[in-house]
Design a protein that fits this description.
445 residues, alpha/beta, Carbamate kinase, Aminopeptidase, 8-stranded mixed sheet, 7-stranded mixed sheet, binds coenzyme A, Amino-acid acetyltransferase, cytoplasm, amino-acid biosynthesis, EC 2.3.1.1
Length: 445
């Protein structure tokens, strides 16, 4: 009994150490960076708001400079009933009554958010609670949309100017800036603004590192309702051209495409209702939602015949120094379906293979290579994570690796030493015949 508890403790400790190490480069990178969070009113009315607010406070304590823009449609619904809220949401014209409701709803949304951000998270001792100051103000200059196709849009407006210097000043004083989707004109009139448009204008004006949309969906969804984990600008324009996304997702893609072309490094679409999604998106390699960037991300994909030349080039120097087994193009052609490549912008920077031994419910990770120019940036681990995911999907129980020089690397990533008899029979015979005396490592999946 005590042994099993001990094993579980070891597992959790190992998991914690692994996750903490994985998060550290992201924590360093985001320290001092400016991030705009656009939070849907669906999240603000839900009982998940306290958990999200605690995570937002955690981000500020890690040195991130945050600007929050909030939606208000759910609060309009609470004040005026669903029908009125729907008609205000869908009507591009904002009349006097609608503007009054938007002002009231924004006020409530803002107070709720302020209250949530003033709570002391339960995991923090009262005396060491972060003292986060919130700053509001007239940061947005608006202008009326005017008359469009003969129709007066009344109090519907658009952003004329963002007072970036004023926002910057608050951020420099470690304040968290809150912005409502309402702007003021030079004549003192209020105009209703769209949250997306405000988020876009603010993120660009203050040169934000990231713009993050927190909504009800786990991310942008493909045609099978699966979360799309990464998109670059080319893929965003291809998706927009296909017109397959719904109205909300299309608007998010358009905003992302615009801000990425205007200096924002990343746009994320994350669930605000799923506990911890924001932290997972920011501090893990797998993320939780959709991350968008201008340039293509480094990614792992199944190898194709066209990659054989690149893979052989990666193998050649390691083969010459005896680190890897020789593989020729005939071998590669016959086994290409076992390989995955690490690719960015059409260049192959690494590869890995997964040989499956179905009877033994085991897999062998082989031919793991990251090109010297891309090493020590976590890509080896990215390839390992991909193989583990594939092996789990194939319901394998064990993953093993044979290595002459890289044993420590595997041990540091959860593998333990194994004996020859633990290998599948077929692999034992190969091992004995090739006489390389590689060390054997395995890990349970
Ligand atoms: C092993 C290899 C794939 C790691 O790729 P990578 O992208 O650099 O891996 P990661 O970024 O995840 O890890 C880098 C860390 O591993 C360490 N590392 C690299 N090679 C190592 C080795 N042979 N033994 C132990 N640790 C090693 C690095 O020093 C670095 O540690 P640090 O950040 O603490 O300084 C890469 O070094 C490689 O291609 N090596 C040659 C081929 C090989 O040996 N393949 C394995 C046999 S199947």
């Amino acid at each position: 009994m005590s042994t099993s508890t001990g094993n579980q403790d070891n597992f959790h400790n190992h998991r914690f150490v692994h996750d903490f190490r994985q998060a550290s480069p992201y924590i360093h990178h985001l320290n001092g960076k400016t991030v705009v969070l656009a939070i849907s009113s669906h999240v603000l009315v839900s009982n998940k708001l306290p958990a999200l607010a605690a995570d937002i406070l955690l981000l500020t304590s890690l040195g991130m400079r945050l600007v929050i823009i909030h939606g208000c449609s759910q609060f309009i619904q609470a004040i005026a009933g669903q029908n009125t809220a729907n008609s205000i949401d869908e009507n591009p014209i904002t009349d006097e009554r609608a503007l009054e409701l938007v002002k009231q709803a924004s006020g409530i949304a803002r107070f709720n958010l302020e209250a949530a951000l003033s709570m002391i998270p339960t995991q923090v001792m009262e005396h060491s609670a972060p003292n986060v100051r919130l700053a509001g103000g007239n940061f947005l200059r608006a202008k009326p949309l005017g008359v469009i196709n003969g129709v007066d849009m009344s109090y519907s407006g658009c952003v004329r100017k963002v007072d970036a210097a004023a926002i910057e000043e608050r951020l420099a004083h470690n304040q968290l800036v809150l912005i409502s989707p309402i702007g003021h004109s030079l004549s003192g009139q209020c105009y209703r603004l769209q949250v997306n448009e405000v988020a876009q204008a603010v993120a660009e004006a203050i040169h934000a590192e990231k713009l993050i949309f927190l909504g009800t969906q786990p991310g942008l969804l493909d045609e099978h309702q699966q979360t799309i984990s990464e998109l670059n600008c080319i893929e965003i324009s291809q998706l927009l051209a296909k017109s397959v996304m719904n109205k909300r997702q299309t608007e998010l893609l358009q905003t992302a495409a615009h801000v990425l072309e205007h200096g924002v490094q990343r746009v994320h679409v994350v669930s605000g209702l799923q506990d911890g999604s924001l932290l997972q998106e920011l501090f893990t390699r797998e993320g939780s939602g959709t991350a968008m960037a201008k340039a293509p991300f480094m990614r792992v994909r199944p190898a194709e015949n066209k990659d054989i030349g690149d893979i052989l080039q990666l193998i050649a120097p390691l083969e010459a120094s005896g680190i890897l087994l020789p593989r020729d193009s005939e071998y590669m052609e016959n086994h290409i379906q076992e390989f995955f490549v690490l690719e960015q912008d059409c260049y192959v920077y690494g590869c890995v293979a997964l040989h499956v031994y179905p009877e033994a419910q085991a897999g062998e990770l082989a031919c793991l290579i990251v090109s010297p120019s891309a090493r020590a940036r976590g890509y080896g681990e990215l390839l390992l994570a991909h193989v583990i995911k594939q092996a789990r999907q194939l319901q394998l129980q064990t993953l093993f690796a044979l290595s002459t020089h890289t044993g420590d690397w595997f041990v540091e990533r959860g593998f333990t030493s194994a004996t020859l008899t633990q290998l599948p029979l077929e692999r034992q015979q190969q091992y004995t015949s090739n006489k390389r005396q590689s060390k054997i490592f395995s890990r349970q999946l």
